[in-house]
Amino acid sequence: MNTIYKAEILNFETILALPGYWNNQKYKDLLGVMEYGDISEISDAELKDMCYMSITENEPEEAARLILGYVFNDKLNAGQIDNLSNEMREEKMWEEYAEIGYHEDFFNTGQILFDAFNGKFPLPEAVKFEVKITSDKLKELLLENKITEAAIIRLLVQGMPEHTLIKRLFTEQLSSESFEEAENIIWQMNTEIQSDDSVLVTAISSKYFFLDLKYTESFEGKTHNDAEIVEED
What predicted TM-score, i.e. pTM, was given to this entire model? Predict the structure, then answer.
């Protein structure tokens, strides 16, 4: 916990869709939800366009209701989905919904609605960043050759302003031995071992949480894994 790690932000960009979420199988599923009919003759190259066309045959709120029902399946009840289908026309639910574990799903829902309706829904913005982490004691931090979401967040906030959102919302978790919300704050993450003392971490998260990282280049800081994860390892 006393080890100093050097962090260098190598790349930071805004993205409007999460890689790999909406695929041909999901487009087929949505066509079924929209009661399109026989899809056997739709080629893979046409699936996305046909899905978007089917979506826009509904009023925006109805389309939102149908897609929310598909994405969240049994996570939300009918009343919640009805309310959210109206709220999504104006609100960025991937930032504002109380249950942080649902933010990624709200982002994916908002993304397809924004695209299909040409901007009648709020613009979904996520961020993708690459950070190189260096230390001669790096192996002490890695679990199965990976950095945990909790450890990377604890390190990254030290290169962000004092008023940054994560510091304000998760003050206790950043310094404690348990940060359960971390896995929901970072939506996708990959750790690439570069040498015995350096790794490259690529992560995707909400712009809501990491916009301040855009203005960071390099810094040094301490971090640690959750105690429960270390004990399991």
Answer: 0.93
